[in-house]
Amino acid sequence: MLGFGAIAREAGFDFWMTTFTTLSVWGMPGQIAFVGLYATGSSIFLMVLAVALANMRMMLMVISGADMLKLKQHNLTFFQRVFIMHFMAITNWAQLSYKQSTYQPKQLLTYYKGFSAVVFVCGMTGTMTGYFLDDLLPTHILRLVIYVTPLYILLLLANAQQKVNRLAGLFGAALSPFIYILAGDWAILIAGFIGGTAAILVQRAQKAWQVDKQE
After folding, report:
1. Tens-place pLDDT, residues 72-88
2. Domain map of the chain by residue range?
């Protein structure tokens, strides 16, 4: 979010617009797409479409997070569920996968709310601070902030309890450079899909082999 604040200012956002973007979107891919299109003077329709498509890849993460929280077991209205899941991010999702075996569903939801609140406050603070980074740091140092995000996600995947998540990250990372030669900007999406599919197939094959071995 530090990096986003700096990018938004460079694109011509004012402080309040930058802050509101993080508050309302709360998804780095969508926020970056919005800033990039805004800087080029694109239409509102195109910006909305781009943000929706960029955040579409988070849909499966949200579905998985809702399943781990077992939201259907809680007495929540539809809008309460939507509000709760708005704060789902890769950080929260990774922490849920790490803690879901530690807490009961009701306790896990309470844990998620507290953890998400802290992450959200830190994200908003990072956005507001990043907006003024240009006044504090040289440009060549400021660019390094952008690389914190992929490195952080890589570390989260490495710490994931489920082996399939680690395999998906490994396969996707290994395929991305080669797919980029053919698909360009679509490389991350395609490599992620292939890597995730390959990881699931490997997991199923391993389970089938274990069953056959026991028999």
Report:
1. 888 888 899 989 998 98
2. 2-161, 164-215
